[in-house]
Amino acid sequence: MAVSALHERATNSPVSTYPIWEILEYCRHLGIVKTNMTAGHWVARIRTKFGGYRQKRIRPWKSNKDTFDIALKEARQWFASPEIRAIASDPFPKGSKQGLNYCPWGEICTVGHALEDYVQWKRIAATKTTFESVVSMINYHILPTLGHIPLDDLTGRQVAEFSLKVLETPPKRGKRELGPKRKLEDLTFEELRKRKKTLNGLIGILRLAVRLAWENGDTDSERAWRCIRRVPTAETPRTVFLTRSECAALLDCCRQDLREMVQGALYTGCRVTELSNMKVRDVAAHVFGVYVAPAKSRKPRYVFLPNEGMAFFLSLCLGRKPDDYVFRHRSGFSWQGRHKHLFKDAVRKAGLPSDFVFHGLRHTYASQLVQAGTPLVVIAQQLGHATTDTVSRTYGHLAPQIRETQIKTHFAELDRKFAAQARLMADKFEALSKSLQGEDWRDYGRLSVTCSWPRSNFVVSDKGVTQLLKQLEKPN
Fold first, then answer.
1. What is the C-alpha to C-alpha distance for residues 362 and 267, in angstroms, rounded to an integer?
2. Nearest 5°: phi and psi at 63?
3. How far apart are the first and last CA of the chain?
4. Long-range Cβ contact pairs of 299-306 (< 8 A, separation 24 or more)
5. HEC string of the chain?
6. 182 backbone φψ class: left, alpha, beta (φ>0; ψ -120 to 50)
7. Which residues 6+ apart lie within 8 Å of 335 measured at CB?
8. Residue pair 434/406 in contact by the 8 Å Cβ criterion
9. Given CA atoms 123, 127, 128, 130 in this order, what sign does their dihedral have?
10. Residue 32 has what pLDDT?
11. Who contacts 424 (Cβ-Cβ below 8 Å, separation ≥6)?
């Protein structure tokens, strides 16, 4: 008889008071607590309607005997008990939907037909996570409104109506119930910007699917894909970054296994999935850095490390096998999305902004390099972007500070009189610079969000500027 995967994982894992879980369904889990190398106990867990968990010890576990089927039966009985059913959240199947909620039929090619062909192509061309995201977006947004419309009948007016519906529909967050629709004029600038970003993603999917149908000869009209246009939107730069002192505070508030993950992100700028999947064999593999397997894109990359970062990674790999994970949850296995609530607690304890998430460590890594004057092409390669466009859009608001520093440092002396005055007034000029842009480097980003830059061609001098002008007017 085959050994269950959960039993095998527990047998090969280190001793820990933290259970090794397997998801039976979302909100229904079965696990093993390994109290010594050969024994422990089975545990079952449900997610409650109030957001927490309820857990129960089921039966003893022995490494020399797989009792998964018995434990599963007893766990199901506990799940079905009246006491637990009264407090448990409704379960739903694990995994993401792999197909569309649409059955293409008939000889007339509809938008739904075009999307079905597009999804089949995307199944081959895209990564698993991207494919699942595309399927979810099509099922939720596009098919209910446009799926039934024949391609030859699709017009710009219908696309405009679809766009308005998307913009006024609140964002979908997991299994939470949607709030009421809100009119465009009731949305804040940031809410509208985010809704436009979602809409443009959908427009990109729809336009490519319809054009693919035209290229395949399913329709002779070009109007269908030509009438699908993106909406203009403002690119908002990232402003929630951490300073080095804030990074240190965050690390101090993390438990040890999470601290290692956070530190790894700050040394590499890698996404959490890339760090979770990183193996010991990927460290110092061909380059002075780490190899990053494909995750969001299909392209692998190498991320170079500073000496400090290499020392950190080598210390984690010491004594481990090549196929072991570099970053391990205290259960001994990959993190696999277990970091979210722990990271949120660490952020709260460190007194950081509540909206700072793990992905912000990637932005922290990039922003630190931008400020240090690192060429954008180098940062793009480190982050795994195909071009510098994304880096420029996301971190370009930091460029004014870099330009300011470079000009002050490298401009060759032109007029000895003013050069001498500048040296005498160096401290006052430094104070002026800080008063204009702020002492915190993130103020550059805030300025770019709240106003255009430069703010005006005719700026009325404030008191500090006026005083400097008076000093410059004094005869030597």
1. 9
2. -70, -20
3. 97
4. 299/384, 299/386, 301/381, 301/384, 303/268, 303/269, 303/270, 303/382, 304/382, 305/267, 305/268, 306/267
5. CCCCHHHHHHHHCCCEEEEEEEEEEECEEEEEEECCCCEEEEEEEEEECCCCEEEEEEEEEECCECCHHHHHHHHHHHHHCHHHHHHECCCECCCCCCCCCCCCCCCCCEHHHHHHHHHHHHHHHCCHHHHHHHHHHHHHHHHHHHCCCEHHHCCHHHHHHHHHHHHHCCCCCCCCCCCCCCCHHHCCHHHHHHHHHHHHHHHHHHHHHHHHHHHCCCCCCCHHHHCCCCCCCCCCCCCCCCCHHHHHHHHHCCCHHHHHHHHHHHHHCCCHHHHHHCEHHHECCCCCEEEECCCCCCCCEEEECCHHHHHHHHHHHCCCCCCCECCCCCCCCCCCCCCHHHHHHHHHHCCCCCCCCCCHHHHHHHHHHHHCCCCHHHHHHHHCCCCCHHHHHHHHHHHHHHHHHHHHHHCCCCCHHHHHHHHHCHHHHHHHHHHHHCCCCCHHHHHHHHCCCCCCCCCCCCHHHHHHHHHHHCCC
6. beta
7. 261, 272, 275, 276, 327, 328, 329
8. no
9. negative
10. 93
11. none
The pTM (predicted TM-score) of the whole model is 0.61
Would you say how long the chain is, in residues? 476
- Torsions phi, psi for 54 (to 5 deg): -120, 130
Distance CA 369, CA 392 (A): 13
* CA–CA distance, 367 with 267 (Å, rounded to integer): 13
Q: Are 231 and 199 in contact (CB under 8 A)?
A: yes
Q: Which of 153-167, 423-437, 443-457 ranks highest by mean pLDDT?
A: 153-167
CA distance 22 to 266: 30
For residue 454, whether the previous peptide bond is cis, meaning omega lies within 30 degrees of 0, is: yes
Tokens of 390: 């994304």
Examine the pLDDT at 205 and tell me if it is beyond 90.
Answer: yes
Determine how many CB atoms are found less than 10 A away from the CB of residue 347: 22
Whether residue 107 has pLDDT greater than 70: yes
8 Å CB contact between 97 and 135: yes
pLDDT at 460: 40
Q: Residue 182 class from Cβ within 10 Å (0-12 exposed, 13-18 middle, 19+ buried)?
A: middle
- Summarize pLDDT for 53-90 with one digit per residue, the tens: 999 999 999 989 999 999 999 999 999 999 999 999 88
Write out the two tokens for 302. Answer: 């190498």
